[in-house]
Amino acid sequence: MAHPPTLTRQKIRYTRILDAAASFARKGLDSVALSEVAAKADVPLGTLCRYFPSATQLVLALYRRQLAELLAAHSPAPAVSAPTAAPTAAATAGGTFAKMKGAGRYAEHTADDVPAHALAGVVMEIFHMRLMQPAVEQSLGKTAYVPDTDTTQLLREIDSTAERAVTAVSGDAAVSRVLLLTVSGLVQAVRCRRLSLFEAEEDLKRACWLLTRSRHSA
User: Fold this and answer.
1) Are 161 and 67 in contact (CB under 8 A)?
2) Separation of alpha carbons 91 and 106, rounded Å
3) Which run of H or E residues covers position 149?
4) Confidence of residue 116 (pLDDT cuts 50, 70, 90)
5) Residues 162 and 126: beta-carbon distance below 8 Å
6) Is the pLDDT of residue 102 over 60?
7) What is the distance between the alpha carbons of residues 52 and 55, in angstroms, rounded to a whole number?
8) Which of 34, 72, 148, 192 has minimal Cβ neighbours within 10 Å of its Cβ?
9) Torsion of the alpha carbons at 32, 65, 100 and 12, rounded to the nearest 10
10) More confident residue, 113 or 83
């Protein structure tokens, strides 16, 4: 797998590839076809393969980026300091957190003033990461990929990282626990096809809105 690009135009392409891969990875590793990802990202297949020669490497790179963004949401320091860390999606067009608010501004919120959409942004990222977890586990089991220290550490700490991130935004550990339990239930509902992805996302947004409203009225 090639090193992440350094030129701005190449970074934008790289980010588009990772963004496009997310919708496939949620369905499992077997659904990640490089040709389809390249078409959705509007990049040549050769360009995609230069960065990610296999679907397993693409899935793991996507997950590393998501984990780094999640960690950055509750930490003032850079999410990953290793030289092989995923490229900064916020500097291009990518990361969900960066699109909504700077990571530093999350820490300024308390449970009484946090907007529902900011809370939903973080929780939605965790929800989509949970959906693609089977693809990540398949990738780690099938590939000869050698995990970097930062990647394996973040994979081990995903539960505590998620809880800290949501708590940093909501300002309330109890709200964080309720939302993460809601995420777990909705992930299972989508996997069992009791809910569509759209329905689960709407339910999750609704849960964030109800919890923030209840805090305001308390």
Assistant:
1) yes
2) 18
3) helix 149-156
4) confident
5) yes
6) no
7) 7
8) 192
9) -70
10) 113
